[in-house]
Fold EEF1A lysine methyltransferase 1.
Amino acid sequence: MSDSDDVPTLSAHTLAALKEFYNETRTGPDQDGTPSDPFTVGAVEEDWRMSQFWYSDETAAVLAEEAVRQAGEGGRIACVSAPSVYQKLKQGVVDGSDRVSAVVLEYDRRFTAYADDFVFYDYNEPQSLPSSVAPRSFDIVLADPPYLSEECLSKVAQTVQYLSKGKVLLCTGAIMENVAKELLGVKMCSFLPKHNRNLSNEFRCFVNYPSDLLCS
């Protein structure tokens, strides 16, 4: 997962092979053609061209539970480039999720299906957000920068700082630990997040607040 500017040009044969692989393993409608639950993790298929790698259902649930706990009664949660967690919050299976509100900030416009909960977001313009998204209006911000680069994390950090009242839950590669600490004052957690597809880079969570669940 590197910045899009650094992605090499793939041959037509390689692109065709990758497309075939994703078509064979994609998550989508059931075989009988019945549409999936729109809030099921994976209901919107991963697009590797946008560096999309969805969390496993178990990881999405753990992160959603943590967000609800930290947001508190009537709290607001911002999921920045983390649609899997937003989806889990909306499934109604996480205790307390009905007592918080959540939005998903995403570049992928397929998520406009979530209506007013969708906020178009381009990390290259970290504070280019609609007027309806007020500064420091979210009790917790959960962010998963799309690329493992200091440039990307630095820009996403600007967005996080703009949105958050204080609490930050960051998910990114372990190699970004020092940069994340410098930018957001976060520390690495013991919890190990998993994805539906195995990633070559070690992935970790970081928080800037006391968390028994994630930093035990």
Remarks:
- The radius of gyration is 17 Å.
- The chain is about 25% helix and 15% strand.
- The longest helix spans residues 57-71.
